[in-house]
Amino acid sequence: MFIFFYFFIRLCEGGELLDRILAKKDSRYTEKDAAIVVRQMLKVAAECHLHGLVHRDMKPENFLFKSTEENSPLKATDFGLSDFIEPGKKFHDIVGSAYYVAPEVLKRKSGPESDVWSIGVITYILLCGRRPFWDRTEDGIFREVLRNKPDFRRKPWPSISNSAKDFVKKLLVKDPHVRLTAAQALCMCFTLNF
Q: Which residues are part of the catalytic machinery?
């Protein structure tokens, strides 16, 4: 017996989150605007995880704005790599986009926590305009993800609130058992204050 799931996505005329990031001055969002966007992404992840679904490819290109208005709602798209997972089980394949892939994906032991990592990477980008892990090759990016921590010393991080920095750090914890869940992240000051 086959079970099919159909996802219906309304027409989104506002473009990709990536395009909006690139259109911003210094490719950065204000903390308030970043929190509004991140809260929407976390709500998607929390709802998916509640039903046992892991997106597995969260990145700015896979979030579309419903309209061109500045405060337009954000919609998640491209569930092509998503999969259902039972509690306590893990995925053993490497999927997703290099810049957003979680360490546990590279170790072939991933679950819903990997979506939260990806949202942490996106949040880092929204706040500072740079990727937290970078190299010229995919293998180099993977090494960076596994070995290094994001840099919070370079500009503009000294001028970003401790609440925002703490939030990003808690999403980018390498150990998925210690990392916040999407539901927990929604309760952090950074997502509640705006």
A: 57
